[in-house]
Amino acid sequence: MREVTIRLESIPVAWARPGEGPFGRYDTQKRIKKLLGAIVLSQLKKHTALTGCVECTAFFILPLPKSQKTKEGQFHSKKPDLDNLLKFYLDLCKDCRVYKDDCQICSIMALKRYVTTSEDDSVGVRISFQEVSPVIEDRVEELNGKLASQPGGIGVNKIV
Predict the structure, then answer these.
(1) How many whole angstroms separate alpha carbon 158 and alpha carbon 97?
(2) How many CA atoms lie less than 13 Å away from 142 in the CB half-sphere?
(3) C or N terminus of the chain, fewer CB within 10 Å?
(4) What is the CATH number of the domain that holds 57?
(5) What is the pTM of this model?
(6) In a domain, 150, yes or no
(7) DSSP one-letter string for 29-96
């Protein structure tokens, strides 16, 4: 099973709706997608697109607000929304040919939290894609381990 991990050390960007102009709709995020796409492609090197079932694990680490230093390491419950962050980065990775099509994503684990002051932690995005077995029962133990090991982690008894 192949795995691809991408790390971007910048403030996470959320997906935005297309703009309306005199000539129809246009992509308001074209420049940032081009810039981040170049960074993703530089990390991929000689990568061929993942095939089959793909599991996505995403961590969005956001900066602490200047007014509240007590939120360090806590979940981020403000905007940008987690689903819009996921949309932007999944589209970006598909455009960079990390995987062939959105329909391949069969499992997503995502976390949005504030940065901590530890030396290992920095603002940014860490996203991994891994080809996985299409049989769910084979994955329950591994998913429990991944969820429990994250800050504020939880476990699941079964997948519904």
Answers:
(1) 32
(2) 12
(3) C
(4) 3.30.1330.70
(5) 0.76
(6) no
(7) THHHHHHHHHHHHHHHSS---B-S-EEEEEEEEEPPPTT-GGGTTSB--SSSPHHHHHHHHHHHHHHT
